[in-house]
Each structure stands twice: as structure tokens, then as C-alpha cells.
């Protein structure tokens, strides 16, 4: 084993990883990257088919972003946002506000609170919403809603609005109480209305929006009980960590209408979906929904730096204005809030994202992805194939006719990812769902390879 792998084994505790399994095998040690590829210490080249956990959109070692960061590095890496402004963060905030308010939105997101990662972006939104509602005199104890299968990060507030038992249940004693709404998972529709047609798995002819009616019922009943809900946290268009589960068209629009009718604030978690991943700059806008809070991270810096932002409206901002001695400030912040290196990477990334070339390339890849991934329907164990923009995923099941999952201990998803890695493609399974989430600079040939190799890996692991 090489020295770096040895050091890793001796000292590093990896996220979301059974370390007993990890310590049995020599890890892949990444030493460099270029565009959609990563190179390991032994000179092996891999395709980065999950954009380094959904963060990298313009490729590794991108000359334009590198240049912007280096220029900034030659000026200063970081100064505190406590009591000081800085150049790239101020410009970035104005660019984010322009991007988040296309045309004439129903609400304008006009203020930007910077933090470090997706979880902190959600924490900020939750705390601001909580206190805004209280200061508006609506209730002393605002109640939050989020969806089945929701994942919003790993800090305690973000976990409180999360609903994946495997990750969250153990910590229930530490969390504040939130209620769960049913989320659409059409492949396993609770009301059994799904009739996926293989070419377009989201045409459900018998669907009568039972899941929306349930949301409506739950919210109105709670209001009648005299303890109405105050805010809904949602992942727009697709739930990522739940297993890449897309929402049917108009689902989010209807949720927003119910929220509006019931005076409920919307917190959009665009940590995964933001910055073009679903086709639009921000996924909520594809459904004509403008939230009260928008949490951004991951691709904001094109995966270069840990940096995040929470955007919100003037009314929210104004609720925290007051005389010094009124103690109305938002008492929250992080050492690296509004970091200059992160801001410069984010600004360069946004410029690339706005370019015609990037938009054209993304649209082309989205079409190619649809063609290629649909070729996998006839493989063994493929239960469902799901797509949303430049996100694709295959759900593997023990029995495609009954949709029966594989026994957990078989670790099918993990084994398929290992088979992919042996063939030079890296992605990270979500249970038995295998995502393909490439950077936008991926070439057609590279995308074709990702899918072809996925087919081989599924065949190797799942064929009887
Ligand atoms: N929200 C969503 C939708 C996510 O997918 C993630 C991370 N996968 C987070 C929040 C948390 O982001 P981070 O890991 O940067 O804290």
C-alpha cells in the first residue's frame, strides 16, 4: 500500500462510511484532476461520474476558475466578514441576486447571507425563518414541515428537517420536532397509481395527485387545530439523497400554491439542484416558484471551495433591523463567512455558467444522457431509470416485476460502484440507486463511456 493510503488508513475517518469495510481495502488516492477526469496515485484515470459529490460543474483544474482564484490569492485569501466588507463577496452577492430573480418574480430574493456548506446554508434559512415568523407575531413556536425522504445536511437543524431514518433516527433525541409530508416517489407510489412507461417513466395515467391532496389535508387540518404550520423545506424537482427521486411536473407548483394559501414560508434547498443541474439556473424557477429562502452551496464554486449562501427577501431582512440596544441582529456567522477565495471561484463559475457555450453543451448532454440511459432498461435488476436535467439514476431491484429490493447486506449499490471504479468510472451509490451526474464539460464520448461501463458493471454484479 502506498504511503498516502497508509496515512489515510491510520488517521482518517471517512464520511458516510463503514470504516471496518474501508480498512479492508486499499483506497483510491486522488492526486489530480482535469476536466471530467480524476487521476490516482498509480496513474489510473477515472471519469468523475458524480461530479465529486454533485459539486463540480465546469471540470477539475478549470483554467478560467484557477486563474480567478490565483489572482485573488495574490491579493488576499481571507479576511473576516465581522466588521469588514470585501470585493469578491460583494460582487458575488449582487450576481447571485440577479440570477435568483429572473423576469419579475412574485417575491424578490434580495439579501445574501454567506456560510460554508449546504448544511449551514439550511441552518441559516431555518433560523431566519423561525425568528422572522416569531417577530411577525404569527406564533411563538413556528412549526416546520419537510418531505419524506428529505435530506438537507448533517448539522442538527438540517437533520431536524431531514427524514431518512438510516441517517437521522439515531439522533432523534437531539432534534427539534418537524412534521413530515408525503413526497412523490412515483416508482413506488403509495397509492399505486404509477404506470411507468419505460420511455418516459413519469407519465402516470391513473395519477390523480393523491400525494398533493394528502399535503393539502394535513396542512388544513393542522390549521383547524389552531397550530398552523409556518414553513416548508423542500428539494425542488428532485430529491437527491432519497435516491434521485424526481417530482412529476407541476407537483412543486401545487405545493407552492398550498403554501401561499396557508401563509406558509418556502425554504428551497437548491444545494444539489442549483446552478444549472436540472437545466434551469435554479430548479424552483422551472415550476415558476419563488421561495422565501434559497439555500445554495455545492456547485456555487463549481466544487472548488466550501462556500454557501442563503438568499432571502427584504421583509425577512427588515425584521432584523433595529436600534443596537434592541438586540435584533442575526446573531449567527462563521469564521469563513464571505471568504474571498470561495467568492472568486464562485464568480468565475457563474460567468462560465452564463456563457452560451456552457448552456449549449449542457443542453446537448441532457439529450444525450436521455438517449444513452434509456438503453439500460433491459439489463438485469433495473427497476427504474430516472432523469432530471443532467442527473440520471438507475434503481436496482431483486425483482423488477415486484420491485422487491435487494437485501441490504448484499450491498448491491456499493458493489456496482466498485465494479464501475475497476472500469475507470467513479460514482457514489445511494443505497441501490446508481447516479450518473457528470460535470457539464463532459464530452459525448465520456458520457457514452459512463453509461456503457454502468451497463457492464450492473451485468457483472446483478446477472444471475
Ligand atoms: N441539501 C441537499 C439537497 C444536499 O444534497 C446536501 C448534500 N448532499 C446538503 C443539503 C448538505 O450539503 P453539505 O454536504 O455541503 O453540508
Could you characterize what this model shows?
The protein is α/β, with parallel strands linked by helices and 464 residues long. The protein has two domains: 3-62 and 356-462, Alpha-Beta Complex (Aspartate Aminotransferase, domain 1), CATH 3.90.1150; 76-354, Aspartate Aminotransferase, domain 2 (3-Layer(aba) Sandwich). 36% of the residues lie in helices and 14% in strands. The protein has 16 helices and 16 strands. Strands 4-12-11-10-7-5-6 form a seven-stranded mixed beta sheet, with helices on both faces. Strands 1-2-3-15 form a four-stranded mixed beta sheet. A three-stranded antiparallel beta sheet has the order 13-14-16. Strand 10, helix 11 and strand 11 (293-296) form a beta-alpha-beta unit. The longest helix has 19 residues, at 444-462. The two termini are 34 Å apart. The model has no long low-confidence stretch (mean pLDDT 95). The site of 4'-deoxy-4'-aminopyridoxal-5'-phosphate has 14 residues, from helix 6.
Amino acid at each position: 500500500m502506498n504511503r498516502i493510503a497508509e496515512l489515510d488508513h491510520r488517521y482518517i475517518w471517512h464520511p458516510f462510511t463503514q470504516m471496518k469495510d474501508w480498512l479492508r481495502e486499499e483506497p483510491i488516492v486522488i492526486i489530480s484532476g482535469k476536466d471530467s477526469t480524476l487521476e490516482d496515485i498509480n496513474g489510473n484515470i477515472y471519469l468523475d461520474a458524480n461530479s465529486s459529490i454533485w459539486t463540480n460543474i465546469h471540470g477539475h483544474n478549470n483554467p478560467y476558475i484557477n486563474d480567478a482564484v490565483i489572482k485573488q490569492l495574490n491579493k488576499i485569501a481571507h479576511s473576516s466578514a465581522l466588521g469588514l466588507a470585501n470585493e469578491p463577496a460583494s460582487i458575488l452577492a449582487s450576481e447571485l441576486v440577479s440570477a435568483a430573480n429572473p423576469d419579475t418574480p412574485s417575491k424578490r430574493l434580495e439579501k445574501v447571507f454567506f456560510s460554508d456548506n449546504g448544511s449551514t446554508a439550511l441552518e441559516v434559512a431555518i433560523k431566519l425563518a423561525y425568528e422572522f415568523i416569531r417577530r411577525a407575531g404569527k406564533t411563538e413556536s413556528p412549526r416546520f414541515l419537510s418531505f419524506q425522504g428529505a435530506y438537507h445536511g448533517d448539522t442538527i437543524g438540517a437533520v431536524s428537517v431531514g427524514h431518512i431514518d438510516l441517517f437521522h433516527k439515531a439522533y432523534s433525541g437531539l432534534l427539534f420536532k418537524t412534521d413530515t409530508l408525503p413526497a412523490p416517489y412515483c416508482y413506488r407510489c403509495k397509492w399505486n397509481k404509477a404506470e411507468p412507461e419505460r420511455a418516459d417513466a413519469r407519465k402516470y395515467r391513473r395519477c390523480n395527485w393523491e400525494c398533493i391532496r394528502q399535503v393539502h389535508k394535513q396542512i388544513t387540518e393542522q390549521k383547524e387545530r389552531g397550530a398552523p404550520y409556518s414553513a416548508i423545506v423542500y428539494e425542488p424537482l428532485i430529491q437527491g439523497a432519497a435516491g434521485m427521486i424526481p417530482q412529476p411536473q407541476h407537483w412543486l407548483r401545487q405545493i407552492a400554491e398550498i403554501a401561499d394559501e396557508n401563509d406558509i414560508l418556502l425554504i428551497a434547498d437548491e444545494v444539489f439542484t442549483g446552478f444549472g443541474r436540472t437545466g434551469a439556473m435554479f430548479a424552483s424557477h422551472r415550476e415558476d416558484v419563488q421561495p422565501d429562502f434559497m439555500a445554495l452551496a455545492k456547485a456555487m464554486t463549481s466544487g472548488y471551495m466550501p462556500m454557501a449562501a442563503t438568499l432571502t427577501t427584504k421583509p425577512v431582512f427588515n425584521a432584523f433591523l433595529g436600534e443596537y440596544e434592541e438586540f435584533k441582529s442575526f446573531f449567527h456567522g462563521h469564521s469563513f463567512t464571505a471568504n474571498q477565495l470561495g467568492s472568486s471561484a464562485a464568480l468565475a463559475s457563474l460567468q462560465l455558467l452564463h456563457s452560451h457555450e456552457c448552456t449549449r453543451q449542457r443542453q446537448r448532454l441532457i439529450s444525450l444522457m436521455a438517449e444513452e440511459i434509456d438503453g439500460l432498461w433491459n439489463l438485469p435488476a433495473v427497476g427504474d431509470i430516472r432523469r432530471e436535467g443532467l442527473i440520471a439514476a438507475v434503481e436496482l431491484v431483486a425483482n423488477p416485476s415486484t420491485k422487491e429490493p435487494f437485501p441490504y447486506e448484499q450491498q448491491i449499490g456499493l458493489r456496482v460502484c466498485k465494479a464501475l471504479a475497476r472500469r475507470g468510472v467513479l460514482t457514489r451509490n445511494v443505497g441501490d440507486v446508481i447516479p450518473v451526474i457528470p460535470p457539464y464539460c463532459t464530452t459525448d464520448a465520456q458520457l457514452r463511456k459512463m453509461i456503457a461501463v454502468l451497463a457492464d458493471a450492473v451485468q457483472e454484479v446483478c446477472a444471475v
